[in-house]
Amino acid sequence: MKDNGTPHTVALWGGVGLNPDRPSLEKYIASAKRFSAIVKQSGADVILANHTDWDHTKVNLPMLAQRTPGTPNPYIVGNAKALNFLKVAEECATGRLMTVPAAAVDPGAVDTSKWTAAEDHQNMMDQLGIKALRPGPSGNETAPNHANYDEATATPYPNLPDVLALNNGNKVTTQAMWWNQRRPEIVEDFDREVLGRVPKNAPKVTWEVTKTAEAKLGDRRVIGKQVVGHVDNASFPDIKVDIQMTLVVPADAKGRVRS
Amino acid sequence: MLDTIFDYSVEDEVVAGMKKLGLDPANIKYAIVSHAHPDHDGGARYLQDHFGTRVIMSPADWDVLDKRTNGTKPKRDMEATDGQKLTLGDTTVTLYITPGHTPAPSPAFSR
After folding, report:
1. Is the pTM of this model over 0.90?
2. pLDDT per residue over A110-157, tens digit each?
3. What residue spans define the domains of chain A?
4. I want to staple A44 with a disulfide (CB 3.0 to 4.6 A). Which of A9, A114, A254, B91 is the partner?
5. Do A35 and B96 count as a contact with CB atoms less than 8 A apart?
6. Which long-range contacts (C-beta less than 8 Å, at least 24 apart) are formed by B65-73?
7. Which value does ipTM take for this structure?
């Protein structure tokens, strides 16, 4: 561009406004940094935006209309100020990014509620970094991982710890020792080595008996209960999580039936 | 022409505005549209239809326009590439793809 014959380099920032989502803001910041380097190298001394509110056009144009010879052109601000403009854009985007929680659902994000079970499964594998699952026992007797029905080779660990001895070797001699010491040790072993721990923030499950019926199982009268566990899924109400279960207990039980 | 304003104001502001300054809008050879929002691309169709103006925008923003179903939009035309130079007379405009505001707005940069 020329101002009364003197050439100048103009930089125009092609989209000033910020979007509310993280990916757009991250791209915006990267673009602002990159364009700043280009503007610096070019020595551009005019900065324009494409809305008149952003680049002082509403002030500059009337000034230009009344400009007298020999007075400066208000658009020619020098390279440092042109770079300041882009720095403000970059910092505004950075500030905005800080206000957007990382977990916020981006408008362009995948709608996970439409996933098939297989897609959901693959996504969880990817998140956990699991490449393949260990195959279960094969029904084919000649396969190396075939299911074992031979009692003699059923367990590679035949020497299980003594149930009635503490981990430190002391014998369990009273009921109190069992409840307060040995049993918690075993529960801990199972939690750590076998079952895994229940997360502290596991959703609450509210159990409801939906149907009760008496029946005979062999020669024993039993009560069958259909129960549904409603899982609190407030974090994603579109998906209802219900655990279906049937509980069969003896009808003539004198007290609570423990499983 | 850098950006083309709305479809409803291009005639008043671009065409009438240029004439007021003693310029002929039929001489607009290229409209560089910074990004696919109707306040920037809306008037481009008018320039295409009346003056045969070539419209340049980044491919990603042309894709945005292709999906837009309402309002006036230009026919898909020239795709800007990063670092592309467009020279008219003794002025050269260099285009850069800078995503953020939309998939790929192109700040123009002219010498």
Report:
1. no
2. 777 778 888 889 888 988 888 888 888 888 888 888 888 888 878 777
3. 2-99, 205-250
4. A9
5. yes
6. B65/B36, B65/B41, B68/B36, B71/B7, B71/B38, B71/B42, B72/B7, B72/B38, B72/B42, B72/B45, B72/B46, B73/B41, B73/B42, B73/B44, B73/B45
7. 0.84
